[in-house]
């Protein structure tokens, strides 16, 4: 009899630990994670010129001489004559995604392969610099 009472109390205590209070749920951590996740940056000028996770920071190495605010970088080639340098925009996107495929000794990060930028962000950057 004592064993049954002990098991009943133990079961109630275990169930009490699973009980949620109003306004809370087991899914709360997932909801918090969604709140914390920032939307992907898709503004081409910000992607090109800003640093941080999910940003290109292209101006660290490249300049756009046609834009006086984006003339910082001088390590990589400037963003001029892009249509003549890359007649096929898909090759430009591929170069942004992983320049090491075309130039194994490059110091340019493989933005696509290392998932620093999404394919959509690479597309936005390529479309943006293709105008220069």
Question: Any overview of this molecule?
Answer:
The protein has 132 residues and is mostly helical. It has a domain at 41-132: Cytochrome c-like domain (Cytochrome Bc1 Complex, Chain D, domain 2), CATH 1.10.760. The chain has helices at 2-18, 28-36, 44-49, 82-85, 89-97, 119-129. Residues 24-28 and 30-35 have low confidence and may be disordered. Helix 5 packs across helix 6. Helix content is 42%, strand content 0%. The N and C termini lie far apart (85 Å). The chain is built from 6 helices and no strands.
Question: Could you give a quick summary of the protein structure above?
Answer:
The protein is mainly alpha-helical and 132 residues long. It has helices spanning 2-18, 28-36, 44-49, 82-85, 89-97, 119-129. The longest helix has 17 residues, at 2-18.
Give the name of the CATH architecture of the domain at 41-132: Orthogonal Bundle
Major sheet attributes: none
Question: Would you identify the CATH H-level superfamily of the domain at 41-132?
Answer: Cytochrome c-like domain
- Beta-strand segment tally: 0
How helix-rich are the residues, as a percent range?
40-55%
């Amino acid at each position: 009899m004592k064993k049954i009472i002990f098991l009943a109390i133990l079961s109630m205590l275990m169930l009490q630990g699973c009980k949620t209070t109003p306004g809370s749920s087991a899914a709360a951590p997932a909801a918090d994670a969604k709140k914390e996740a920032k939307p992907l940056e898709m503004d081409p000028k910000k992607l090109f010129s800003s640093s941080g996770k999910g940003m290109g920071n292209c101006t660290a190495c490249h300049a756009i001489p046609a834009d006086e605010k984006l003339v910082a970088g001088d390590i990589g080639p400037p963003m001029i004559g892009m249509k003549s340098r890359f007649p096929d925009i898909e090759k430009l996107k591929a170069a942004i995604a992983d320049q090491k495929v075309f130039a194994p000794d490059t110091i340019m990060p493989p933005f696509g392969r290392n998932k620093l930028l999404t394919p959509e962000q690479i597309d936005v950057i390529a479309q943006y610099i293709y105008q220069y």
